[in-house]
């Protein structure tokens, strides 16, 4: 149930700030209200849903400040990932990542935004797994909802002619990691995240739960 609601939020079917009525959702999904309530609790842990006494639940909104903070945390985590992946680099790792990037390029060539998003997620998920760091995986699991939302909106914000450029950026990122230079790879990852954050900020599609960050 949490997965279905998470997917609806990521797909924009449930917009930021939208009120979530437990019994109405249960009726529309053909389930009792208990799994819906449990899903709300799970998504609240992922910061995708907010609940308040006597006000019910709603889809979380994201302020510019929250977006900036999420980007900063992602940079810290992904730089650690880059270091660990490079330390354990192997032909198998390169083959796996290059296969994902090749699929992403093919999807971008046909304008398949959904496939590009899914492959973008798989690319980063593969890096996290290759980093072989259990605590990192636990932290990422806690942030999964926010990171997925970040990647989806960043991808959906791309005009058709920019989709190919976005996919090609992963070629450069992979080459920087495979090249072995830690500083180059870390800079490439930081730039990758910052570009996506700026694109989201321009669209304003994550919603706004407060005044712009100063």
TrEMBL record:
SUPFAM superfamilies: GntR ligand-binding domain-like, Winged helix' DNA-binding domain. It comes from the Bacteria. One of its GO terms (molecular function) is DNA binding. InterPro entries: GntR_C (IPR011711), TF_FadR/GntR_C (IPR008920), Tscrpt_reg_HTH_GntR (IPR000524), WH-like_DNA-bd_sf (IPR036388), WH_DNA-bd_sf (IPR036390). It holds the Pfam family GntR. The keyword Membrane does not apply. Residues 1-62 form the HTH gntR-type domain. Transmembrane segments: none annotated. Keywords: DNA-binding, Transcription, Transcription regulation. PANTHER family: GNTR FAMILY REGULATORY PROTEIN, TRANSCRIPTIONAL REGULATOR, GNTR FAMILY. This is HTH gntR-type domain-containing protein. It comes from uncultured Thermoleophilia bacterium.
């Amino acid at each position: 149930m949490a997965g279905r609601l998470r997917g609806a939020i990521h797909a924009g079917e449930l917009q930021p700030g939208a009120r979530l009525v437990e019994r109405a959702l249960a009726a529309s999904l053909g389930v009792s209200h208990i799994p819906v309530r449990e899903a709300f609790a799970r998504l609240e842990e992922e910061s995708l849903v907010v609940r308040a006494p006597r006000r019910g639940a709603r889809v979380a909104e994201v302020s510019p400040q929250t977006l900036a903070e999420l980007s900063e945390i992602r940079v810290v985590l992904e730089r650690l990932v880059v270091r660990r992946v490079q330390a354990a680099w192997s032909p198998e790792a390169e083959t796996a990542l290059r296969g994902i990037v090749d699929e992403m390029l093919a999807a971008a060539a046909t304008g398949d935004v959904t496939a590009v998003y899914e492959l973008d997620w798989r690319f980063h998920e593969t890096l996290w797994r290759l980093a072989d760091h259990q605590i990192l995986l636990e932290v990422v699991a806690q942030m999964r909802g926010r990171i997925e939302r970040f990647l989806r909106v960043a991808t959906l914000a791309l005009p058709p002619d920019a989709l190919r450029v976005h996919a090609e950026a992963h070629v450069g990122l992979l080459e920087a990691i495979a090249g072995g230079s830690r500083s180059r790879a870390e800079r490439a990852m930081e730039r990758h995240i910052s570009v996506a954050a700026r694109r989201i900020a321009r669209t304003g599609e994550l919603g706004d739960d407060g005044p712009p960050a100063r």
